[in-house]
Amino acid sequence: MTTDPSADPPRALELERFLPYRLSVLANTMSAALADAYAERFQLSIPEWRVLAVLAPAPGLSSAQVSERTAMDKVAVSRAVASLTRARRIERSVEESDRRRSSLRLTTRGIAVYNEVVPWALAYQDALMRGMSPRARESLDALLDDLQRRARTIRTQRIDPNPRTHAGTATASRPRPTKPTRHPRG
Asked: Are 76 and 35 in contact (CB under 8 A)?
């Protein structure tokens, strides 16, 4: 493999400045603070709380829909649903129109837990954002919405780390194989 000596050297990755890493660390830091309180005060894991929080305003969702709305992996949602069902905080019912689909709803016990957690979660959010101006909060909200939209769009596209090298050529739009192609011997 030959390299082009005139090509720009690759940029260095400063992990502490890499946006996906920073957002992940921030989310993990916030989740860790919440996880301890949820576990101690409400006997809830973070995934269980997220399932409750999604189902409260939207009863009747399937596990797959909960997974999609929370961006949690299906296994984590399945475990949270099983745990919440055992604790009688949610109930699962089979849809009459499609027996393969089940819907989830909070039980009376689940609604009570949700109503206890919400003020605490909102107080945590308020403490986290204390000192931010209303304008900064609006900007943050808009930026997060924009990043979420972009992340969803980029997820379905092929990213070229050096688009200048292919500018104007047919290879720029042609997908690269992800696995080596095997040719039959003969």
From this structure: no
The amino acid that residue 88 corresponds to is R
Q: Quote the CA–CA distance of 34 and 45 in Å, as a whole number.
A: 9
Q: How many domains is the chain partitioned into structurally?
A: 1
Range of the domain at 75: 15-153
For 101, what's the count of Cα atoms within 13 Å in the CB-facing half-sphere?
10
List, for residues 8-21, the tens digit of each pLDDT value: 777 888 999 999 99
Task: Supply 62's token pair.
Answer: 């399937």
Average pLDDT of the residues in 26-38 = 88
What predicted TM-score, i.e. pTM, was given to this entire model? 0.73
Rounded distance between C-alpha atoms, residue 7 and residue 94, angstroms: 60
Asked whether residue 174 is domain-assigned, the answer is no
- Residue where the block lists tokens 């949820």: 38
- Does residue 43 belong to any structural domain of this protein? yes
Instruction: Tell which phi-psi region holds residue 184, choosing left (phi > 0), alpha (psi between -120 and 50) or beta.
Output: beta
Residue labelled with tokens 């390299």: 3
Alpha carbons within 13 angstroms on the beta-carbon side of residue 180 total: 3
Which among 113, 125, 143 is positioned nearest to 23, based on CA atoms?
A: 143
Closest to 54 in 3D by CA, of 77, 73, 35: 77
CA distances for 166 relative to 79, 153, 163, 180, angstroms: 46, 22, 6, 21
